[in-house]
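Quick note —
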Amino acid sequence: MDPGLSDSSGKISHDHLAVNFKAKFSKPAPVRKTISFRKLSTINIQSFKSDIEASDLLNDQLLATCTDVDKLFDAYTSELSMLLERHAPLRTKSIILRNDCPWYTDERYEAKHKKRKLERNWRKSKLCIDHQLYREQCSTANKILKEARVTYYSNKIASDGRDQKSLYQITKHLLGASNEVDLPSSTFIKTVSSRLQ
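Predicted structure written out below.
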């Protein structure tokens, strides 16, 4: 019997009963986002400098012909954009958005990093000892994650112990409840109402 459902003397509380069940559900698909970026660190500085010096930006004729500041600004912007596109082209890639996990500590990060390193060693060497080391590190990393998560939520529940709203939000988050309300369709309502008549 769950100790939370009985008093200190061991008498079972009659107004609350525990319900245990197993539910099958699928993991939601990861949310992807497309981002644009430039690899500025790969620019050859000397080549970039020489292209700027050879461009129309440092041409005295440009300064003489453009008396309007806005036109001069547009000329500088378009020329520098073209040079930047040549040396560090705009790239796009799709990334997976991950939720911020407050229980994801440095210790957990190091354990995961070590696990990945051992996995690469095992896949490269195909030795049984490397596989055994990898499996042991998997177990250690999972144990660290579970302990960190349990500790985080235990502390959160203990600190918000009297705040029912906060406890409800934590429970809702842990159970993965969505904020959307699923209402029955109009055909379902008509079917039920016709049966009741």
